[in-house]
Design a protein that fits this description.
The complex is a heterodimer of chains A (394) and B (151).
Chain A (H helix, E strand, L loop, with lengths): L7 E4 L11 E7 L2 E8 L7 H5 L4 H9 L6 H16 L5 H29 L3 H22 L8 E2 L2 E2 L7 H25 L1 H7 L7 H7 L4 H4 L7 H4 L20 H25 L16 E9 L2 E9 L7 E5 L1 H13 L7 H7 L9 E6 L4 E6 H14 L2
Antiparallel strand pairs in A: 1-2, 2-3, 4-5, 6-7, 7-8, 9-10
Helix pairs in contact in A: 2-3, 4-5, 4-11, 4-13, 5-6, 6-11, 12-13
Chain B lengths: L2 H10 L2 E5 L2 E5 L5 H9 L6 E10 L2 E10 L2 E10 L4 E3 L9 H11 L2 E3 L28 H7 L4
Helix pairs in contact in B: 1-2
Classes of the chains: A alpha+beta (394), B alpha/beta (151).
Amino acid sequence: MQYSPENVMPFGPIHPSLKEPEYFKLILDSGKIKEVIPRIGYVHRGIERAAQDRTWVKNIYLFERICGICSFAHSLGYTQGVEILTHFEVPRRAKYLRTIVAELERIHSHFLWLGLVGHWAGFDTLFMWVWKDREHILDLEEAITGNRIHKSYVAIGGVRKDLPDGLRETLLKELVFIEKRARYYSELVQSEETLSIRTKGVGGLTQDTARRLCPVGPLLRSTGIARDIRVEDPYAAYDELIPQVQSSTDGDIACLMTIRLNEVLDSCRVIRDAVDKLPSGPVRNPVPRVVPSGESCQHVEAPRGELFYFVRSEGKSGPARVKLRTPTLANIMTAIEMLKGRPIADVPIVLTGMDPCFGCMDRVSVVDLNKSAQWSLTGEQLRQYGIEYYRRHE
Amino acid sequence: MSEEAKAVGGRLGAVVETLMGCSVLQVDPAKVKEACAAVSSLPGYYHLTTIAAADRGDRIEITYFFWRGRAFLVVRTTVPKTDPTLDSISGILPGATLYEAEIQDLFGVTFTGSPYTGKRLLLPDSYPADAPPPFRTEADPEKIRKLMKLE
């Protein structure tokens, strides 16, 4: 079908609701989105290819730099793939420590996301509160691993360092604070009118759509398909510290907030459980520099969902091939489906809703070829447009 | 090796083996679509985790990972570099669309029936048409850099 040119709205590649460049061509019909055509790759750095020229150990630090939010999940997925090939067992204490850091990462990622949803819904107070609370988690991560963002904590055969002396008490104290805040936010997102207007019924993802498009993480669980890799295919210490899978059947942005906040509360429980049951012993086993020939596939439940690593060794000092699939790539097709039938005002909040990892600059270009005119909306203008749109349509 | 994999493999005349702790169906390129349709319709295997490609000398290896529980059910095939063409499975599983488009860009495999046929997803428009796809072993980053006038 041919669309008339006046209905085409290019969204990106530099656009306001994301932290990195991305391009969506929006086909509009009477102001509603009819079709979305994605074009990605603006920040593709060829990391998979670069990994083939690096050693097994150097690649840990390369892969964790794929993402500043779920950096630990990347290094864990890759390292677990390598450990399978080496046939070396990871000490139990290291598995517990990996679980603690993975869950801390989940909490700070979900808080970051909630703040962004608040911002795009016109509720900046929520954004500032949540991001302030998130600092507590980043401080904890720094205390445990030495770094806030790129933690470099995982080592092949275990973790790089043990839990520092005296940190157990600090950790437990901070968890009480985080749980208190997460409970408050849970009540807030269900009762606050601004958020309800902007998020309830926005998305409308169904189980049938999810089965066709294969989304992952909270987006999948928002349709009632309660799949979580930590439970179905446990890794680290998740076979002993079993998380509760959080799901809903609403399929909208509102239920994504509830799911993620419930996951924050459950992560606090898992961390407390891990600290209580933390086994004694070493945190790292020695492994050989050369990994035997073979191939492995591993997936971990990153905060955004399933993160997959395929690793092939040909018995050399580095991998012959590493293929990874991030949760965002799996979720793009689903976000597109969620946008169909929605007004332009919903674009930022729906794209933010899938918790994408390709990012945000500060303008969107709107082209009206029929009038031979072109103008731009800054990020703030698009945000205001969304707020005004919902004020008019209340 | 799972009984389900053996049954699907038997129907398609595919070799079934255990690799990576998973059942792997080694299928002929012409039967990839049929194999993926059969696997994705097995109970619980509706989730396609990804499609991975690798350069294996004079052939490109394509691997489809379907996940259920504690293991993947894997469909694998290879296509020659001289005719890197496969049937797209995006018609039966739309979730595969971007995975196929990624392989098309990076390894030069054409997926017949994909909405991205003839279009680019990842590579810039300025990527030289006569240069090999960037993830093939014969691709020389320095030459491509010069062709793209990035020096």
